[in-house]
Protein 1
Amino acid sequence: MSKVEELVENWQNIHFVAYLYICIGKSDYSLVDEEINEIIDKLKEKMPNTDTKDAYEMALKVYNLQSDTEIISFIKLHTNDFFNTENDRKKVLQDLEDIMEADGIIK
């Protein structure tokens, strides 16, 4: 079992969402404080009684182990595991757009 597989073995939806948020935040190859704060806030909205900082840190650890190609494959492989409905996907897409805008680059 690879290091990534070990890390994601017990992931819940919040971890995968955090991973997606990190991917979009790092799409410009930097993750600024505004983006990190936006990610943590979005995670808290989704799962108010969850340790969102821990989910963020676990997702970041996986992200940092992967190449760009591995990230794309990982997302394709696991999207249906964590998103069951079209509405879930749409909500995450809106959140991803908000995170992109957090550093002021997109609008």
Protein 2
Amino acid sequence: MKKVILGSIMFLAGLLSVAVLLTGTMANDWTVNGQLSSFWCMSQYGLMPTFYIFVGIAILGICVAIWGVFEKEK
């Protein structure tokens, strides 16, 4: 049960971090070919490694939560 809670919190933290990062970059007025591009804006600020870390935390969190659900009780 502890792994499920830990994994859920990690997943939520990673997901919220990615959402804040994506919405924060869209607050700028930068466009690519007339279209707004969050990923281009993040790459200009050097935030792509941070984005990948947050996505990794979310993926790791969901994996820990699923592992906790299917783990047998002792």
Protein 3
Amino acid sequence: MQIYIAYKYTHIKNKSELKVNLEHLADLLEKKGHNTFLLNRDAKAWGKKHVSTFNNVSTIIKNIFKSQCIVAYVNSSVISPGIIFEFIVSKILQKRIVMCVDFQIENKVTFLKKFPTEIVIYNGIKDLENKIDKIF
């Protein structure tokens, strides 16, 4: 299955930790036989390539269209317009949406809970790994 991984990148202070966690999540899904798409990894080489907003939007829509499932990694209580856009596109295309939300911010992102098909509340990357392993 093709899986699109959505996440907040802009204004995240510890981008290196985010990158490690996202790559860990992608590796976990890939070991189960899935293909994954991470915008900053696959289209921007983790920030080494500049891509215009127009091209980003085009790439996002194309890759959500190709995917059977969207996994949203939510670790910030600051609402991301990008994740909302990805959720809306996914809903329009009737994709399965799995939102993985850190338990520390779960009550601060209630608006986002309207979109997913499934919600996984996790406490640390190992807990997320165990929970993702059970649903994929």
Protein 4
Amino acid sequence: IMLSQDYTEFEIKRLINAYVISAVIIAVLLFVQQYDYYGSGNERHTIKILTNDVFDPNFLAAFLVAPGIIAFSKMVYRFSLRNMIAFLAIIAGILYTSSRGAFLSAIMGIGIVILGFFKGNKNRKHMIIVAFVLLLGCFLVVEFIPNNSLIRVINFKSYYDGSNAKRLLDWKLGMMAFFKRPILGYGLQGEMSIIKKALGMSYISHNTFIAFLLQFGIAGFSIILACVLRLFRNIKRNSVLKGVLLSTMAVSVFISAEVALAFWIPIMFVAVISVYERRSRITNGWL
């Protein structure tokens, strides 16, 4: 549907700005509330709005990934203090959640943007400013983030913990359930219901793509994959959109985001912008 919609540059800019602002608001709430999700030592932070349930920090961090990459791209291509503050706030917000999957996915997306920028930009002064801002940002983030959260993300020894061991078990059980009905899947049901029915155990697959396989089988998943590949083909010359799309796919490996805003909103933005850029033949004019 989004690939058939036409938006003006002005409309896209307003949508993108609203998306980035929403991520900054979440980051500010993380700093202000510092809500300890597990109550286990001020390590994983999230937010709580009024009497609603607290947000899962993994999904909260996943939502911040795409706008964080967009904010970084705006800072690189259209440098301003506002863009720099937005980027640093969002990255700090991801680190506050202590979500390793979101952090690694954001770094990957940022790396793709940087490679594209240095490849197509010969303005050395601009490149020096970008490099300085990155170094400054790293320093500020390290000083600002609670030690427990920072250690969980940047100390790679912490990746060999019970959390990831359980995630690997979730993936294994999800694939075991998939192989029991691989062609058409189990239909539109929750993952826990599917795995419970197939294996007699209450688990989730903890992976968006395994969840798609469980629900729609190879037949349905092939359609979803074809749509994503088509979208990637449309944006193959735009490093910013590639960074957003690939980082969204990457973070979706670590959570079951098949019905989450963190998965679908970036895809819709990339689709809308790809249509605009093919029509206008202007790359990144919306930044």
